[in-house]
Each structure stands twice: as C-alpha cells, then as structure tokens.
Amino acid sequence: MPQARRGRVRISRRKRPTESKESHRWIETAERAKTVLAAATTVTVVADRESDIFAEWARLPGPNFHLITRCKQDRRLVNGDSLYAAAERFAFTATRLIALPEREGKRKARLATLTLRFGKVELARPQNTRDRNLPKSVSLTLVEVVERNPSTGTEAVHWRLLTTHEVADAAAAWQIVDWYKMRWTIEQFWRLLKLQGLRLEDSQLETAERLIKLTAVAVKAAAVTMQLVQARDAPSSEPAAIAFSPDEIAVLDKLNAEVQGTTPLQKNPHRKKSLKWASWIIARLGGWDGYPSSKPPGPITFKHGLEEFHAMVAGWILRDV
C-alpha cells in the first residue's frame, strides 16, 4: 500500500524525480502486478488519466505486459508536433453504438454513437523531467473515440486512449475501447470499499496490521458483491458455489421461497443454485422489488442484501448449535 504523506512537500513536483512523487504509486503497483501475475500469458493494466505518466510508459511495458491509459494532457512528439494535433490528422474509420453505464452524480446510463480513429505516435521525453535515465521517446498507439452528435443536454464523450498494444485495424482499436470500458468495474469495486459501501476509509484502527486484516475482509465482501453484479447481466450463469459455501447455499434455498412474490413476475426466474439465482435472492434482501421492469439492482443494493444475508446465516448456525 502507498505510504501516507508526511508533512508538507516544499520542492515543486516538476523538480522531483518520479520516485519521490505521489503519482509513483501507479508505477509501483503495476510493478507488483508483474510479480504476482508472472504466470499469466498477457497482462494489460487499464488506467484513467492519473496514470498518464511518461516514466510509466517508458519503464513498465514488456513482451506480455501492456498498458491502456486515458490521456491526461497533450504531449510533445519527437517530430515536434503535439499529440492532439497529430490525432486530428487521423482519419475516422468506424462508428459504433456503445452503452455507457451510469456514473452517480455525473452521468445517467445512456447509449452513445462513437466514431473511431487511431494511429501510431512517438512520445518525446518531457524536457523538464529530472529522470534523465529515461529513453528519449516511446512508441505507442493513440485510439480516439468521439461522440460527434451528442443529445441535447449531455456531455459529449471524448476518449483519447494510449496503448502499448498493436492496433492494426478498427476491430483491434475497438477492443482497446472495450477494455478501457471495463475500468468501470474497478470504479464500482472501490466505491464499495469506500464511502458508499464498506466505509473502509472511516476505519479508526491504529496499526497497519489490523488495517490490512480489515482490508482483506472488505476486499472479499466487495469481490462477492461484484460477482453478483456481473452475474445479474451475464448471458449465462456460473454456479453459486464460486461465491457461497454449501451452508450458505442451503440458506439461500430456504430464503428463495420467502422472498418471492405471489405473481409470476416476482418469481426467481433463474436456474436453481446458479449465481444468477443467488444474485436475485440477495437483491431482494437488499430492497429490490424483483420486477423485471424495475431498475436493475446495483452494487449498493447487493451490499445491503449481503449484510442482511450474512446476519441470517449467522442466526441459522446459532440455531443449530
């Protein structure tokens, strides 16, 4: 975990090497991922604008280790041009209708027609960097998608994505966009850990050891919650056993009859003991009404449902002791 800040930093960030900046945590975390995922065939680190750091582009990529990051700023290219100006000369090649998820307080879920263009770029090392050991340039691909005719009252989508992946055609470029969209799952995960979910940041634990243990418990709960969210929308379903123990599945089976309504529309429509079946039950415990026409349950609904469920499981176990 990144270290907490210690006192006021008096040296301008532009005059400090990368290792002494708070943003270095993005590089450090990715380096750890290299070790943990060393057996993986391919790893792709997907990040938002905070991770758009030249040192990261220069140091992290490898034969099976790739980056996709949304651009934070315009950059100088080795030919003296700017990144954004170079993109303006790329030809738009394809258009696609994409479903954008809701971002609470920022954007409602909607469909957006995005137009795509892409091309090779050669980023120059920043002139004012203190990291003189970095290469003078890095070769990347810029994938840009633009919502050229947004609906009235909506903010147009405009993503500039830099990647180390080879992008030979429009299909490969759309794959980069699809992978970047999956970053929303990470946002939901952290939302569950933080203020709107398990409130990990409110912890008053005094030692790092206790905080790490609490984090491990919270991460497991958040991971199960995300499994339920993903099962909700999946075309097929994994078995409930990937997230619940046999005793918990037995309790779910008993609860299913209790949380179903009297009409066919309020019956659990999913295969028994599948993860979709379990997600439907947990959502009902979290306050969802069960109607197919209603807004699908979200992470916070599942989080509340899991809390209710675990209390019931504990009571069930105590009853049998």
* CATH fold field value of the largest domain: Transposase Inhibitor Protein From Tn5, Chain A, domain 1
Output the CATH class name of the largest domain. Alpha Beta
**Which strands sit side by side, in order, in the main sheet?**
1-2-6-5-4-3
Low-pLDDT ranges: 1-5
What does this structure look like?
Helix content is 38%, strand content 15%. The protein contains nine helices and six strands. The protein has helices at 24-36, 54-59, 83-88, 170-181, 183-193, 208-233, 246-259, 275-285, 299-320, and strands spanning 43-47, 65-70, 94-100, 110-124, 137-146, 158-163. Strands 1-2-6-5-4-3 form a six-stranded mixed β-sheet. Strand 1 (43-47), helix 2 and strand 2 (65-70) form a beta-alpha-beta unit. The radius of gyration is 23 Å and the shape is globular. Mean pLDDT is 85; it is low at 1-5.
